[in-house]
């Protein structure tokens, strides 16, 4: 069923998120009778069209749930994409004989996929590796009564409520209060702040001043020798080489042939002879 439901993967890289949300909001919500009929067609007959309609009609709920996780600094579109995966898993496993609406069943699958995505991506270093730590990660913000650091009594109360050690609460609070630092400075960052990025503290093995001076002198000397060799050519040969090699929009042999009223083969011969003269002059230099 997953392969056939790729139609719901609307959030392609070039998709506009606002347009996507408007689109899914425009999809009609199913009535209880319509939902039960579609669910029975899928459950008993493996009707993929019924599955598609069930998924499409619940995409708006995925967006609603994804917005509740906006405080973790992740892209809303990525959360929606992960939630859509959870929705499809829920539709595939939904049993209409249980007597509950699909949204009540699917919300757990949607949140599970989003939770996994958040834990994988919210920090470069994993913030929660055990079941207790994961529970603490997603409940600590709601448990805190104020924005500042918690006192010992608050830490002990949360630790007892969530069934973890007080030291784990302190550690998780510190992780939640910290922020990631980009390895490279943003492109629009000013020069003074750009030096604070970690990448600016790495050793540059290409920054040898002696090599830089040597390379600069070599380039300047090569350019000077090339200009000197070019001046030894006649004006027509200089123009041909310039038009063929030094211009942004290089001229063709036929264009130069029309300009000098000779054949294209003659222009090619003049170009070849001029290149040989320049090569010889550069070798002597």
Automatic annotation (TrEMBL):
Name listed for the protein in its UniProt record: RNA polymerase sigma factor RpoH
Sigma-70 factor domain-2: annotated segments: 54-123
UniProt subunit comment: Interacts with the RNA polymerase core enzyme.
PANTHER family the UniProt entry points to: RNA POLYMERASE SIGMA FACTOR RPOH, SIGMA FACTOR RPOH HEAT SHOCK RELATED
Gene from which this protein is expressed: rpoH
Residue span of motif Interaction with polymerase core subunit RpoC: 78-81
Residue ranges annotated for the RNA polymerase sigma-70 domain, each copy included: 78-91, 252-278
Ranges that cross the membrane: none
GO biological process, one term: response to heat
Keywords associated with the record: Cytoplasm, DNA-binding, Sigma factor, Stress response, Transcription, Transcription regulation
Species assigned in the record: Marinobacterium aestuarii
Location of the DNA-binding region in this protein: 253-272
Function noted in UniProt: Sigma factors are initiation factors that promote the attachment of RNA polymerase to specific initiation sites and are then released. This sigma factor is involved in regulation of expression of heat shock genes.
Location of this chain's protein in the cell: Cytoplasm
GO terms for cellular component: cytoplasm
Domain of life: Bacteria
UniProt-listed SUPFAM superfamilies: Sigma2 domain of RNA polymerase sigma factors (SSF88946), Sigma3 and sigma4 domains of RNA polymerase sigma factors (SSF88659)
InterPro entries in the record: RNA_pol_sigma-70_dom, RNA_pol_sigma70, RNA_pol_sigma70_r1_2, RNA_pol_sigma70_r2, RNA_pol_sigma70_r4, RNA_pol_sigma_r2, RNA_pol_sigma_r3/r4-like, RNA_pol_sigma_RpoH_proteobac
GO MF terms, alphabetically ordered: DNA binding; sigma factor activity
Family to which this protein belongs: Belongs to the sigma-70 factor family. RpoH subfamily.
């Amino acid at each position: 069923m997953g392969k056939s439901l790729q139609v719901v993967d609307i959030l392609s890289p070039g998709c506009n998120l606002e347009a996507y949300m408007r689109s899914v909001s425009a999809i009609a919500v199913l009535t209880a009778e319509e939902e039960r009929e579609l669910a029975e067609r899928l459950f008993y007959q493996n009707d993929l069209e019924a599955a598609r309609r069930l998924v499409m009609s619940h995409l708006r709920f995925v967006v609603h749930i994804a917005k509740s996780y906006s405080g973790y600094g992740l892209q809303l579109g990525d959360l929606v994409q992960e939630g859509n995966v959870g929705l499809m898993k829920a539709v595939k496993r939904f049993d209409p004989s249980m007597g509950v609406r699909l949204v009540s069943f699917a919300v757990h699958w949607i949140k599970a996929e989003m939770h996994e995505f958040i834990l994988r991506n919210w920090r470069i270093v994993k913030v929660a590796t055990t079941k207790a730590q994961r529970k603490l990660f997603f409940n600590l913000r709601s448990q805190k009564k104020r924005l500042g650091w918690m006192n010992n009594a608050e830490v002990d109360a949360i630790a007892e409520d969530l069934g973890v050690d007080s030291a784990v609460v302190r550690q998780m609070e510190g992780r939640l209060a910290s922020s990631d630092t980009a390895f490279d400075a943003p492109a629009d960052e000013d020069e003074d702040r750009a030096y604070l990025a970690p990448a600016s503290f790495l050793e540059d093995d290409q920054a040898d001043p002696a090599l830089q001076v040597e390379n600069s002198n070599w380039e300047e000397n090569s350019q000077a020798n090339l200009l000197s060799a070019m001046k030894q050519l006649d004006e027509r040969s200089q123009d041909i080489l310039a038009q063929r090699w030094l211009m942004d929009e290089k001229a063709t042999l036929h264009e130069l042939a029309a300009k000098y009223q000779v054949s294209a083969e003659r222009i090619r011969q003049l170009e070849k002879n001029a290149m040989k003269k320049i090569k010889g002059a550069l070798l002597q230099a």
